[in-house]
Amino acid sequence: MRSLSKLCVLLLAAGLLIAPASGAAASKSKKKKSKTEEVAKPKVDKYTKMFVNDKSCLTAKGPFLTLHKLKGKLYVEVPLKTIGREMLIASTISEASDTNLGTIGYKPTDPIHVKFTRIDTTIYLSQAVVPPVHDTHDPHMSKAIGRSTLPPIMHSYPLVCYNRDSSAMVIEMTKFFSGDNELLAPIKSTKGGVVNITGKFKSEGSVIGQIKSFEDNVTVKSYLSYSVTADLLGLMVIKKDEPMTVKVTRTILLLPEEAMRPRLADSRIGIFLTDMSRINGKKDKIEDFSVINRWNIQPKDMEAWKRGELVEPVKPIVFYLDDAFPALWREPIRRGVLRWNKAFEKIGFKNVMHIEDFPKDDPEFDPDNLKYSCIRYVPAAVANAMGPSWVDPRSGEIINASVLMYNDVVKLAANWRFVQTAQVDERVRGKELPDDVFQESLEYILAHEVGHCLGLMHNMAASSAFPVDSLRSASFTQQHGTTPSIMDYARFNYVAQPGDKGVKLTPPDLGPYDDYVIKYAYTPLPDKKDMFDEEKTIRGWIDEKVGDPIYRYGRQQVIARYDPTAIEEDLGDDHIKAGDYGIGNLKYVLSHMEEWITDEEDPDLKIRTELYEAAAGQFARYVNAVMLNVGGIYLTDVNSNTAGGPQAVSVPKELQRASLKWVLAQMKDSAWLEQPALTEKLPLHVDLSFILRFNFCRTFFTYYKNVTLSSHIADDPYTPQEYMDDLYNIVFESTIKGGPVSPSERLIQRMFVDAAADVASSEAKRMKLGGIAEAYAPSVDEIALLGLDRSGIVERYLGPLREAEEEHGKGYVASQLWNSDALSSGYGWQYNVQLRSIDESRALFVNVNDNTCEGIRYLDCPAFSVQFHPEVHHSVDGDTMLRNFLFKIAKITPDWTMSSFVERVINEVRETVGDGHVVCALSGGVDSTVVAVLLHKAIGKNLHCIFVDNGVLRSGEGDEVVTYLREHFDLNLKLVNAQDRFLDLLAGVEDPEKKRKIIGHTFIDVFDEEARAIGNVEWLAQGTLYPHVIESVSHKGPSAVIKSHHNVGGLPEKMNMKLIEPLRELFKDEVRQVGAELGMPESVIWRQPFPGPGLAIRVIGEVTRERLDILRKADTIVQQELRDAGWYRKIWQGFAVLLPLKTVGVMGDGRTYEHVIALRCVDSVDAMTADWARLPYDLLERISRRIINEVKGVNRVVYDVSSKPPSTIEWE
C-alpha cells in the first residue's frame, strides 16, 4: 500500500507540472478526446455478455452452485471455495413414457460420490475416494494415504470464463446432464439377466429442462430419449426398437464438511451396511469392516437427554406425502410413519418421525430432489412397495429415503386378508376389503417400508420365535401380534381357526426386535471418542440377547435358501403344524367362496379367479415351507467372544424325514384344490392342483443336493441315499403294497421314473445333474410365490420362465435375476456355498436307477439293460451296430460331411464373437492348430494366438512351433517365455493331478495377463476334444472322472472370459480330417499328440531342470528313430518317460546307479482305447542303445506293453 501511495503522489505532481494548453490547442484536444471515447466503449466481459446481457439466459443462482441455461446448453458456475468439497449426484425418474422400465420416484442407480478438482484452468469431476480410517495424528501415514487415494478423474471441463469477481469458474456440463451418461442413466443396456435390455440413446430427443439452485444443492431436470429393445432370456421379445422418453431430476448435493460419526456393524443384527477399511496402526495392515446405515439423530438438549428426559432431535426425519395418494390411503400412511416414534421414545427421543404433505407454496420443494425424503404414489400394475435409501459413503449417514407405493398394493392386501384370515374375520368375506381393514393392512405395509428407510433389513427369522399354537391365543396375539418384528414377511394370521375368538390377525405395531435395532442404531454415546470406542458397549447390547429367539436375526435368503426358519410368508416354530392349520383354513375358505361372493357381485369371475389362484399360491407356500426342512440347515450368526452355539446346524434327521413324508402326502391328497363350483365356469384350463403337483414333484429330484450339504455337517446325518430310498418308498408305496394307485400318485410315479431315467441317460438335461449349485436356489415358482422379485418381472412372465427353468435347471432364473455383485458383500443376504467337493450324485443316481428298474415290472414283456461302449474303436462290430441303429432303425440320412462341419463352425464363431477378440491357447499340436486356423478363417486378425513356453516342452519345440505356424498360417502369434514361473511352482510337487492343476491354473493366469494386455478380449479358444471332456467331467450323463484337462467344465470365475471349444465333440481322427479339409500340411495334421502339461507328467515324481534335460534328450532320440524307421505315422503316439527310480548298471569297468527310461508307443484311432505298438525288435534295440550311450544319467530302458484300458496312454 505504501508503494502504491508514493506512485499516486508522483503522478499527481507530474500532472501539476504540465502547463495548461492554449485555447485552440485545448479545443483540438477536446475534439480528439471525444472521438476517442466514441471508438473505445467499455469492454463487456464474456460472463456479462453470455449470462447477464443475453435475455434468453435462464439463471438459477445459489451459494453452492449457480446454473445457467443458455441456448440449450447448461453452464455451471463453480465457486473456487467449492472445489474439493465432496458431493453426491443422484438421478431420480420424475416421469416416464413406460413405467415398466422407469418407476416414478425411483433412483435406478446409486448416487455417485464426487468432487470438483482443478488443474490450471480446467475443472475435473473426480470420484471422491473414501480413504482408509487411520491415525490422522501420524503425518507420515496421512501423507502415504493421500498418495494412494488420488481421486480418479471422470470428466474434464475447460474453463468457459470466470464470473465477474473471479470467485467462480464457469464450465459447460450439458452432456453430463442431457447426454448418454452411463453412471446416471435411467435406461441401461443389460445382458445376462432375466430381461435383456438394449437402450440406444437418442441425442435428438434429449434436452435440458428446468434448473434450480438452493443453499446446499442444485437440481437439473432433463428429458432423455431412447430406442429400447428388450427380450426375456432370449425366449421372447418384449419390446423391439420402441421409443421411450424419461424425465429425470439430477441433484448435486453438497455433503457436510465433517461426516457423521459412523457406528460399527454386527452380523447378528440386520441393518443395511456401508463398507469401509482401516489401517491397523499396530499391524500396518488394511482391514475391511462395515458400518451401519442410519440417520444422524442427535439430542437437541444433550444434558436433558442424559437426565432421562424425552428430547427433540436436532434434525428430525421428515417424510413428505405425495398429494397424488387417494384420500383413503393418506391417514394409514401417516400412522405407519409415526408409529416408529414409539421405538425412538424408548431411547430418549420424541418427535423424531414427521410426515408432512407436499408443500404447495415452497418454491424450493421438489420431491425428486435428493434433499427431500418422500412417500410416492406409483400408478403401475405392480402389487408391491419398497423403501430404498441412499447414504453418505464416508459414514453410512442416510441422506435420503423414499417409500414407493404401487397402485396394485390394494389387490395384494385384499388377496392376503381373504386367503389368510377369512376363516375367522367376517369383514373380509367379500369382493373387496372394507375401508377399516384396508387401512389396517396398508398401515402395516407402510410401516414395514419405513423400517427399511431407517436402515432395518428384513429379519426373516422373527416369526419362528413364536410357538404355532400361541397364534391361536387371543391374549398372546393381542399382546405380541404374529411376530416379534414387522421387518419379517410374516403377513397375517393364517394359523387362527374358525371359532378362535378375539385373536389378533396382524403383526404388532412394532415388535421387541424392532425396538432392539433402533436402540443399537440410534442410541447416542456422547462419552465415546469414536466408533471403535463404542464397540464394547454396542456389542454388549447384542451379547445380552444371545440365545433369545425373539432377538435372533435371520438373513434374507434370496439366491440360496438354507434355513427353513428364516423364510418369507411363514408363521411359528413348526411348519408342519402351521401347514396343517393353514391348509384346513384354505379348505374352509374355498368351500365358502361361492357363498361369500356371488355371481351377481362377480359376473365375470375375475375376483373369484384371482382369489382362487391366491389360495393355490398360499397352499404352495405352506408346502414349500415344510419342504425346506429337507436338507435344511439352521443358521445363526454368532460372535466368537460370546456364547451362541455353532453357526450352522443341520435340521434333525427325523424332522427331515417327516417333512418329506408330509409334503408327498399333500401332493397325493391335493384334489380339494379342484373346486368344480368355480372351475367349471372358467375357460379351458388345467387345474391348479395338477400344476402345483407337477412343479413340486420336479423339485424332489434336486433336493438330494440340499441333503448332501446338510448331511455333511450333521452328527447324525440324513444321507442322500436315505433320502432317495425314502422318496422311492413313499412314491411307490401303493404299488409296493399292491393297492390301487390314484391319478395323483400315478403322476408322481411317472415323474420319478422319468427323472431317474433322464439322469442315467447320456442325454440327461442339465437340470437333473448339472451344477450342484442348484442346491438351495429358489425355483421360478418360489420366486413368484414368495415375492423375491420386487420388480414383478417373474410373476408377469411366469409361463416362459418356467420353460426356461425346465431347459436349464432349477435355480437358473434365480441366477439370472441376481447376477450382479449386489448380493455378495456384507452380511445382508445369505450367500451360496459351493458343493462340488462333496457331490456324490452320480453314484447316488446309479442306485436310484437300479431301484427304479426294480419298481417297474412288465409281466408280459421282461426288460433288461446293460451298458457298453459301441463307439470306441476296439468294440467288436460297434461301428456296425451304430450304423444299423442310425441309418436303418432311426432312418437318419447320412449327409453330414466334414466340410459342412467346417462351414458351420466358421459361421457360428462369426455370429458368436462378432467384432470381439479371441485369445487362442496354442500348443503347436494338431488340436489347437486346427482351432486357430478355423477361427482365423472366421474372424481374421481379431484372433490372438499365444504360445506359452512353460519349461516342460520337448527339445527346441518352442522355436520350432512358432516358426512353422508363422510361415504357414499368417497368425497373430506371440511366444511367452514363462519357464521359470512354471518350474518354480512345480518344484517339490510329485502328485500328477497337482501337477496338472498347477500347470492349468498357471496357464490361465498367463492367458489372463496377455488378454488384459491386448484389451477388449472376451473369449478364450482352446482345442478341447471329446475324450478330454468325458475323462474330466460328466458330459451329458454320469461317468467317472479319470483325470483333469485344462478348463474342461468352464473357466475360473476370476477370468472375465468365455470359452470357445469348436472341437469338443470330435475325436482326434476327426480333428485330423478337419485339418485336411482346411488345407493344412500333413506335417502338422499328423503331429503326434502331446499333453497340455507336457513333460511334467512324463517325468514321474518331482520335476527338476536336471530331470527334464535327461528326458528331453531321450525323447528326441525316440522321435528321430520313429521317423527314420517310417513308424512315426504308423502309430498313434510314441514317447519316453523318466521313472522315479534308479537301477544298478555297468558302464565300462565301472558300476553305475542311474535313471530308467520307459518307452511308451501305442496304436489307437481315437485315444478312447489304445494298444501297445508291436515295434520291430531292431528298432527297439537302436532306441535303447542310443539312449543309454548318448544320454548321461540313464543306464536302463524298458518298454511298456500295457493297453488302455486298464492303463492310460500317459503314465500320469
General description of the model:
With 1212 residues, the chain is α/β, with parallel strands linked by helices. The chain is built from 39 helices and 32 strands. The strands form 8 sheets. A 7-stranded antiparallel sheet has the order 7-6-5-4-12-11-10. The chain has a 5-stranded antiparallel sheet with strand order 1-2-3-9-8. Strands 16-15-17-21-18 form a 5-stranded mixed sheet. β10 and β11 form a beta hairpin. α7 crosses α10, α16 runs parallel beside α20 and α30 crosses α31.
Query: How helix-rich are the residues, as a percent range?
Result: 25-40%
Sketch the major β-sheet.
Answer: 7 strands, antiparallel
Overall radius of gyration:
38 Å
- The number of E-state strands comes to 32
Instruction: Name the structural class.
Output: alpha/beta
Number of helical segments with 4 or more residues: 39
Oligomer: single chain
Distance between the termini: 91 Å
Mean pLDDT score:
83
Provide the low-confidence segments as ranges: 1-37, 760-773, 820-829, 834-865, 1033-1049
Overall form: globular
Strand content: 15-25%
State the strand order across the main sheet. Answer: 7-6-5-4-12-11-10
